[in-house]
């Protein structure tokens, strides 16, 4: 790590390419849509998208239209789907850029039709059915009307029918089969209306556990980044690691306390190392006294409160020096903590850890 950097997120694009290839091999009949919303889950959307496409992904998925346009402007030419925007969004810019748009209601369909007239180009649309998540998507009782209108609208080309699973990370959950049945029904209605759309349903967990539901496209997100939402049985490689270095070392004496509020007091004389990363760099304050780092080949505890800019590591009687590398989390291969370990301690999921790592002060480098 360059000496002047306080904190560095490293993104291992080799690992990402490996994961894309592995996932594509697990869904051989389907195209891969690499989901790069939220700046590629904090890894860098454009870099991730380029690497994913190079490794065989033939679609990209984004949440908002502005995220999708960033990919297009970066020169990515594969189909890009976006699925969530306020109704005030300017769809015509997306249509002009050839972005695929998700539609969950008649009102949205009409907005897209109007935008297509402005853009003087047909809009590529994926009709979304709510099969039980009760979040985005068209309710089954409104579906026939939406499908009929979309089939008749000259301004739109219906590319796909799609939905999203609620409990795919619990393979035995009855919701998965129920959603699959409703999805089949929605597709049949689209066919009855004269459409011949593609179908897509699976996120990472669905891809890993339900080969019968892969259909034409799978939409992995978290698994691309090497984080396994279900089992641990596949060889996914974590893509992100988080690094800093020791800024100062000192001996403290038995009875001395460390950091704000004196929440930790040493029982013996010990060496502590100051590391210049804190909650402003993505180290959650909730990990105070509950995390370790890898320093000189060993896991060592962070003691006392996590501050805005710094943490303190207890190194006992070991020799540590200013400039020594500190790994906050990574793949776990060298014994360092993982994003999953942070998430488990905090009672959240690793998605939230990596996605939260985008900070102005943290340098991001790509390998
Ligand atoms: C985020 C998202 C995905 C990817 O989900 P993962 O659990 O990260 O694989 C797929 N589809 C939709 C609609 C999403 O919003």
What does this protein structure show overall?
It is a single chain. Helices cover 30% and strands 22% of the residues. The protein has 367 residues and is of the alpha/beta class. It has two domains: 13-224, Alpha-Beta Barrel (TIM Barrel), CATH 3.20.20.10; 240-366, Lyase, Ornithine Decarboxylase, Chain A, domain 1 (Beta Barrel), CATH 2.40.37. Strand 4 (80-82), helix 5 and strand 5 form a beta-alpha-beta unit. The two termini are 12 Å apart. It binds pyridoxal-5'-phosphate. Pyridoxal-5'-phosphate binds at residues 35, 37, 83, 164, 203-205, 219-223, 229.
The ordered H/E elements are EHEHHEHEHEHEHEHEHEEEEEEEEEEHHE
User: What's the level 1 CATH class of the largest domain?
Assistant: Alpha Beta
Unreliable segments (pLDDT under 50, ≥5 consecutive)? none
Major sheet, described briefly? 8 strands, parallel
- The whole-number mean of residue pLDDT values reads 96
Radius of gyration: 24 Å
Give the proportion of residues in helices: 25-40%
CATH homologous superfamily descriptor of the largest domain: Alanine racemase
Distance between the termini: 12 Å
Small molecules bound: pyridoxal-5'-phosphate
The total strand number stands at: 19
| CATH-assigned fold name of the largest domain | TIM Barrel
Shape: elongated
Give the second-level CATH assignment, the architecture of the largest domain: Alpha-Beta Barrel
Total DSSP helices:
11
Keywords: Isomerase, Pyridoxal phosphate
EC number: 5.1.1.1
Function: Catalyzes the interconversion of L-alanine and D-alanine. May also act on other amino acids.
InterPro entries: Ala_racemase, Ala_racemase/Decarboxylase_C, Ala_racemase_C, Ala_racemase_N, Ala_racemase_pyridoxalP-BS, PLP-binding_barrel
């Amino acid at each position: 790590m360059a000496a002047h950097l306080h904190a560095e997120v490293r993104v291992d694009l080799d690992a990402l390419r490996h994961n894309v290839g592995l996932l594509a091999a697990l869904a051989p009949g389907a195209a891969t849509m690499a989901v790069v919303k939220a700046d590629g889950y904090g890894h860098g959307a454009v870099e991730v998208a380029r690497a994913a496409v190079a490794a065989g992904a033939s679609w990209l998925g984004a949440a908002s239209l502005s995220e999708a346009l960033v990919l297009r402007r970066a020169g990515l030419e594969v189909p890009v789907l976006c699925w969530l925007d306020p109704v005030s969004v300017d769809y015509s810019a997306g249509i002009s850029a050839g972005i695929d748009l998700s539609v969950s209601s008649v009102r949205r369909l009409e907005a897209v039709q109007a935008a297509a007239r402005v853009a003087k180009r047909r809009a590529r649309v994926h009709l979304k059915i709510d099969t039980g998540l009760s979040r985005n998507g068209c309710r089954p009782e409104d579906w026939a009307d939406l499908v009929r209108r979309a089939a008749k609208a000259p301004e739109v080309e219906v590319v796909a029918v799609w939905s999203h699973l609620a409990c795919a990370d619990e393979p035995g959950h009855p919701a998965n089969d129920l959603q699959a049945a409703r999805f089949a029904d929605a597709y049949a209605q689209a066919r009855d209306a004269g459409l011949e759309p593609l179908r897509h349903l699976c996120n990472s967990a669905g891809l890993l556990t339900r080969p019968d539901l892969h259909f034409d496209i799978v939409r992995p997100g978290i698994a691309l980044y090497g984080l396994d939402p279900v089992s641990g049985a596949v060889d996914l490689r974590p893509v992100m690691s988080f690094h800093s270095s020791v800024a100062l070392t000192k001996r403290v004496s038995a009875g001395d306390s460390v950091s704000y509020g004196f929440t930790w007091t040493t029982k013996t004389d010990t060496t502590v190392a100051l590391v210049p990363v804190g909650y402003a760099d993505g180290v959650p304050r909730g990990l105070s006294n509950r995390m370790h780092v890898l320093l000189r080949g060993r896991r060592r505890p962070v003691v006392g409160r996590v501050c805005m800019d710094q943490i303190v590591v207890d190194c006992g009687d070991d020799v540590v020096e200013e400039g020594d590398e500190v790994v906050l989390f990574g793949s776990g291969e060298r014994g360092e903590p993982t994003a999953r370990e942070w998430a488990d301690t905090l009672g959240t999921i690793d998605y939230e850890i990596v996605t939260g790592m985008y900070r102005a002060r943290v340098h991001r480098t790509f390998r």
